[in-house]
Amino acid sequence: MKKIFSLLLAGTMMLGMAACSEDSSSGDDTYTVGICQIQPHVALDAATQGFQDALKKELGDKVTFKVQDAGGDQSACTTIINSFVSENVDLILANATPVLQTAYNATQTIPILGTSVTEYGVALDIKDFSGTVGGNVSGTSDLAPLDQQAELFTELLPDKNTIGLIYCSAEANSKYQVEKVKGYLEAKGKTCKVYTFTDSNDMSGVCTTAVSECEAIYVPTDNTVATYMSILDQVARPAKVPVITGEEGMCAGGGIATLSISYYDLGYATGLMAAKILKGEAKISEMPIEYAPEFTKKYNKAICDELGITVPEGYTAIENSAE
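Now predict its structure.
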């Protein structure tokens, strides 16, 4: 009888140890997250940092990041995304529209979260977009109210009637923003001229033409313009042509004002989404696109002073602006 009892006790202990082992291992999952950023500039850098900070806070040392920058080169972007797919990373962060488009075409199984993407329906060619992509894609949008962006011209530059709108033709979301802002400006009686360039090589010539033909300039949250904002600034400011931009980093580099979001906060929100997906707390196919919770009117004090532009109440000066 003692022998039977001992065997039963031993069996119970082994089962208990196995259960403990199972419980502890379930908390030991590790994750590899591939991050591809289309190119380096202040807004995208901030979004990447916010994303990493959120995931580190949620998962600690259980998450490893593979961070790659495509340097504005689409072929490099494709190579980076394909490497993430071949390595079968647990999740991909697509920072900017061209990266999202590349990842969307590269895998239907690995979860993809976009950030710094303006309009997912436009980017992914989804008709009648409902706010949820479905499948293996979700993310956050940096879309600011474009009617309020257009309103900045009325508030700051009421006497400027010919507005040039500049963007890179390779960026679908830039075209979307420009078309919307153009409509709002024309409804206010402004004359709009649209100027496109294909890459940074012809940006200088296009900006020079726009500045010579227009009284003020608008640039959306265009990644190429953001990276090479100094090109536009070097042409526009000496000509006393003010530039209103789609986001704060661009404004700091040569604009007079913007209606902007915090790209760090946007990236952070994306990181919280990623944590829920990796921990199995949410299905990416059911996660709607999230938007920035607040927008702030900001201005570049140095350039406004230089151009003699009076800024009304309600605007916040940007720190570390170009002078």
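The domain at 31-142+262-291 is CATH 3.40.50.2300 (Rossmann fold).
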